[in-house]
Amino acid sequence: MSDSVYVGNAGKDAALDRGWLLGHFKDASDPRHSEDVEIKWGVHPPGDERAQWVTGEERTALLVLISGRFRVELPGRSVLLAEQGDYVVWGKGVDHSWYAEEESVVLTVRWPSVPGYKVSDDNEAPA
After folding, report:
1. Phi/psi of residue 10, each to 5°?
2. Which superkingdom does the taxonomy of this entry point to (predicted)?
3. What is the CATH number of the domain that holds 88?
């Protein structure tokens, strides 16, 4: 197997790194290392919420609902993702937070991959 190929399972691999499958935080020798994009497989129990708003956002983000009901809070707007495949995109400068109304699985893609958004609470995975 080539060192530039990785085969895995999103559910299993996500559990190892706070939901994150790909991004700048992976070892540079890992094919999942990228400074261009980050991908997260987020599994959220009912009532799970982001500990604090992301402010000063420097990335663009796409969040796609796989299952459940998931609310994304944006300045002056609340977006409910309720049907499989519902998604929201926001750009640089848009602060955000989120809340899982039901057990939810969401796929987050954001770009570029930059450090500095990790919430200090070790039980919290950023979105």
Report:
1. -55, -45
2. Bacteria
3. 2.60.120.10
Single out the residue of 77, 84, 70 nearest to residue 127, CA to CA: 70
**DSSP secondary structure letters along 50-63:** -SS-B-S--SEEEE
70-74 sheet: strands from edge to edge? 77-81, 70-74, 97-100
DSSP result, 34-47? -SS-EEEEEEE-TT
What is the tally of structural domains in the chain? 1
pLDDT digits (tens, 9 = 90+) for 71-86: 999 999 999 999 999 9
**Burial letters for 30-67: b for 16+ Cβ neighbours within 10 Å, e otherwise?**
eebebeeebbbbbbbeeebebeeebeebebbbebbbbe
Which residue range is the domain that position 36 belongs to? 10-111
The pTM of this model reads 0.84
Rounded CA separation 7/62 (Å): 23
